[in-house]
Amino acid sequence: MQFLFPGMLLALLAVAIPVIIHLFYFRRFKKVPFSNVRFLKEIKEETSTRSKLRNLLVLLSRILAIAALVLAFAQPYLPFGKNNDRGPKDVSIFVDNSFSMSALEKDIPLFEKAKQKAKEIINAYDATTQFQVLTDDFEGRHQRLVSKEEALGLVDEIQQTPEVRPLSKVLKRQKAALATRSQTQHASYIISDFQKSITDFEPNQDTSLEVNLVPLHAVQEANIGIDSCWLAAPIPILHQSNTLLVKIHNYGQQAADEIKVAINYQGQVRPQGTISIPANSSVTDTVHFVLDTPGWQEMVVSITDYPVQFDDQYYVSFPVMEKLNVLTIQDGKVNKYMDAALKGISYFNPTDQNVKNLDYSAFAKYQLIILHELNNISSGLASSLKEYIIDGGNVLVLPSAGTKLSSLNAFLSSLGAAEFQAFNKVNKQVQRINTQEFIFKNVFQKVPKNIKLPHTTGSFSRKGITRAGEEILLTNRDGTPYLFKLKKGEGNLYTLSSPLDISYNDLVKNSEIFIPMLFKMAISTGRATKIAHVIGQDETIEVRSTDIAPDEVLKFQHNGQEFLPEQRIIGDKVILGINNQIKEAGFYRLSKTTSDTLGIYAYNYNHLESDLSFFSDAELAQKAPNFEIMDQLAVADLSSTIQQLDKGKVLWRWGIIAALIFLALEILLIRFWKV
Please, which pLDDT band fits residue 26 given cuts at 50, 70 and 90? Predict the structure, then answer.
């Protein structure tokens, strides 16, 4: 047994007071005349003995009462567990305030119970303790140590948030805050439901910090949520049937039938039918829609599911261009067939420019750039095209029979493509179409047996068939590539091995191949706008600086409120930092000071917590063997549990109880033991 205040034991000298009183207590006896005392001798002796016994018991009760009271003030305890050092301590408390904490335990939300337990932890420590109160928001003001009173105030201010953090990051955040005062002891408390999706502790976790896990359990509910959405084509097309793919996940242990799917577009809710999802699996459904107007589009995909609903809606936004901009760069020679094809497709907005009069800064506004039989590709043009491709553009190279191979190969090799060799006048016939690749995928319901494929009388050979990242789209009978694609960065490089000139190549006469090829190349851009963002994950948005004046301030607007993002200009881009200013799912309109809309961005809640499976106390003990796991009995009386963990088995209460018992015994002896 040890004492918190051992100096108080000197007060045990006070037991001398009742002893002194007892020894120097002289009672005056009153003389009473009596005729004969012979018959009183025996009773007198008996009364004297009983009186001495009673006085000794009263003395003992007083001594024991004083001793017990002194011991109580010295605060004895039995040290056990990890904490035998009784110095000052800093405590970090994490309160899980994510959406999953809305679940109920005996009609009380886990979130409210977590705040209550946080207060119990704070109250279990003395006024000298410093506290960190941390939540999923990871706010800057929560990364400092505060007093006990201020910590209680911070707990009261906690609100639920769409943010969700893996607990390993929470623990790192706690360690960073506690490390600011290395001269004190440190303790960490994590109050959470410990979902399996966020509990990522390692079994060999660092034990330099005393970590206490406080699990709160609710009734586990089955849940169905929308996992993600994406467009089937990189660029949606006006007045055509477009396809949105929706991935819906069943997190429950039972199959879900007749889940209703709907889409809200232009203020109208359009049912899309029902689907069935097997237990603990996902199904990808398709939603078809037709776009009537260009510009930014807003859509909300929804399902019907109870009781968990934060993941039942998915917001989607994307821009729709009225026409696809195509730039043809030529050296004074125009191919009338290609020119007619580009102008004949209503979705194309073609532009012809001579290689000598190019504006490289305008490349970004084109979805496809065609290099038509250039005799030479300058280093400046090659560099601009490479940057354009990496940033998400598409380039189609149509070589000339008399092209300068050194300049063409320098451009190809800079992107990692195989170089061309000498031009050979050899007859070749295209035999195979790669219908698994995007350019020709879904172009034919079934490739006709009598389809007319391109025939060439002259083409370039290559150094090797393909390079890493290249894919053959059309193949000649001899196995050599006719048309191949190279993925580079976010964009694509397409290269034809034969000139487009009709004297060498009849591709322009094969409308079944040529027209779909140009169209799919133009919409294959990797620079397509991201149709949905996740709150707390997508911290930056890029917009073109060419649309914004240098001193112009941008702003986001949502439901009548607005905020200013962080703005940084890097090259031809403006990088916008959100900095955790978005807390509610929905559509956020980005505009300039002049109110011109630059974009509409869809933000969704993080679905990391859609899977409502939790670790039990036993599973937590296996996953984090070096941590202290508070069981349900300990959580029920958290203050006492913490005091025992922190101070050992506290005995001062027993001292008070013993003192009261001995004082009560003294009173009983004096009052009821008559001599």
Answer: very low
In 438-449, which positions are buried (b, 16+ CB within 10 angstroms) versus exposed (e)?
A: bbbeebeeeeee
Residues of the chain with CATH 3.40.50.410: 89-220+613-647
Q: Is cis: bond before 33, omega within 30 of 0?
A: no
The pLDDT-based confidence of 32 (bands split at 50, 70, 90) is: low
Fold of 533-604: Immunoglobulin-like (2.60.40)
C-alpha–C-alpha distance, residues 160 and 102, integer Å = 8
Q: What is the CATH number of domain 224-321?
A: 2.60.40.10
133 Cβ contact partners less than 8 Å away, ≥ 6 residues apart = 93, 95, 118, 142, 146, 151, 154, 155, 158
In the sheet that holds 566-570, the strands lie side by side as: 540-544, 573-577, 566-570
For residue 554, the 8-state DSSP code is: P
Fold of the domain built from segment(s) 324-522: Rossmann fold (3.40.50)
3-state secondary structure 380-431: HHHHHHHHHHHCCCEEEEECCCCCCHHHHHHHHHHHCCCCEEEEECCCEEEE
Mean pLDDT value of segment 270-280? 90
Residue 572 has pLDDT above 80, yes or no: no
pLDDT digits (tens, 9 = 90+) for 412-451: 999 988 889 889 999 999 999 998 888 888 787 777 777 8
Contacts of 419 (CB under 8 A, 6+ apart): 405, 409, 412, 413, 462, 463
Report the alpha-carbon angle 578-580-584, nearest 5.
100
Q: Are strands 649-650 and 76-78 parallel, antiparallel or unpaired?
A: antiparallel
The continuous run of DSSP H or E covering 644 comes out as: helix 638-647
* Mean pLDDT of all residues in 147-151: 94
Q: Two tokens at 291?
A: 């776009």
Domain 89-220+613-647 matching CATH 3.40.190.10: the answer reads no
Does residue 267 register a pLDDT over 60? yes
Given a cut of 80, whether residue 493 has pLDDT beyond it is yes
